[in-house]
Design a protein that fits this description.
It comes from Sporanaerobium hydrogeniformans. By secondary structure, the chain is of the alpha/beta class. The protein has 12 helices and 12 strands. The strands form 2 sheets. The chain has a 7-stranded parallel beta sheet, sandwiched between helices. The N and C termini lie far apart (50 Å). Bound molecules: guanosine-5'-triphosphate (GTP).
Length: 325
């Protein structure tokens, strides 16, 4: 039997950071497959993880919740017969609905040798309130359907803010285990334990009807669809990306990230990341979420690429902005 772990979380929440830690500290002796679904056309994460010897199936065909049933089934079958893994980790797109991913795995539990194990949502404690307000339909769905919620960036906020954040989460999901300790203070094995300890509760929860991500109410799926308008991620979020061998100046990229993370001049940018070469031939990667960004040195990759995700993106403006770097 192959365990299936779903590690969801909004854009830039820290899913990849968590998965890397688990691979290093908790999954050492297991045969592991990671199924990633990134929103946007260009897969940025896979290169980093391949170095760790993990096989990756990318499904960059847009949104996991739109293309899930078909593509996911095929990917899953392929992965199971080819690798016979002990564990499959699914990292859905940051704007995927966790309930859709759970349903897709459950649907396959009958005929495939799999069992749904972990249902985690990674939540950026710093931006939880803002995301709930602006992107509740997607963000809250992850919180409501997770059995364990791992808060990231808790070391960066005050105790009051952390408590406010946990209260907001508890209003939407009383049953989930909440991890509030900064991850660097915990062993990967401890995190895994917190994630896996919910298995019995999970079964109980699954018997109940899903909690509606729009209003927090309990109603059946059909009822749900009659009363609320539901959006697919690609109706709300757009992405823009670039794949190029040309060099970029790190200083210029830094200025761009400064602008994108602190203004809305190019739309509401929720996430940007990339791996590029500079004019001296050195490779660097960058990560941006609202209000913060970082640039790190990185090993060479097969080509330079970057991706920006947000709402109301000014794609032309972005193109120009990066062309000038
Ligand atoms: N300060 C701080 N930064 C963090 C923490 N977790 C993640 N980050 C940073 O946030 C950025 C995004 O982290 P990722 O792990 O790539 O997030 P993700 O959820 O996989 O992002 P997507 O690619 O959008 O799905 C990176 O720059 C991380 O280094 C945290 O707990 N504290």
């Amino acid at each position: 039997m192959t365990k299936v772990d779903i590690i969801s979380g909004f854009l830039g929440a820290g899913k990849t950071t968590l998965i890397k830690k688990l691979i290093k500290e908790a999954f050492k002796d297991e045969k592991l497959v990671l199924i990633e679904n990134e929103f946007g056309e260009i897969g940025i994460d896979s290169g980093f993880l391949k170095e760790g010897g993990v096989e990756i199936t990318e499904m960059n065909s847009g949104c996991i919740c739109c293309s899930l049933v078909g593509d996911f089934g095929v990917a899953l079958k392929e992965v199971l017969s080819k690798y016979k893994p002990d564990r499959i980790i699914i990292e859905p797109s940051g704007v995927g609905k966790l309930s859709d991913v759970i349903k897709a795995v459950k649907d396959k539990e009958q005929d495939a040798q799999i069992t749904l194990n972990v249902r985690t949502a990674v939540v950026d404690a710093k931006k939880c309130k803002m995301y709930m307000k602006n992107f509740g339909e997607f963000f809250n769905n992850q919180i409501e359907n997770a059995t364990t919620i791992l808060l990231s960036r808790t070391q960066d906020i005050s105790e009051d803010k952390l408590i406010e954040c946990t209260q907001l989460i508890k209003e939407r999901n009383k049953a989930a285990t909440l991890v509030t300790t900064p991850w660097q203070d915990l062993e990967g094995k401890q995190l895994l334990e917190a994630m896996e300890s919910q298995n019995t509760l999970e079964k109980e929860l699954l018997k109940k009807e899903a909690i509606c991500s729009c209003c927090g109410g309990h109603h059946s799926h059909t009822e749900h669809h009659h009363h609320h308008q539901h959006h697919h991620a690609d109706e709300v979020f757009t992405s823009w990306g670039l794949e190029t061998p040309r060099p970029f100046k790190q200083e210029a990229i830094k200025r761009v990230l400064e602008k994108l993370s602190n203004t809305q001049a190019y739309g509401m940018i929720l996430r940007a990341k990339g791996i590029l070469q500079d004019e001296k031939g050195n490779w660097f990667c960058f990560d941006m979420v609202p209000g913060e960004y970082e640039i790190r040195q990185e090993a060479a990759d097969y080509t330079g690429r970057l991706c920006v995700i947000g709402t109301k993106l000014d794609k032309k403006g972005l193109q120009q902005l990066f062309e000038e770097c």
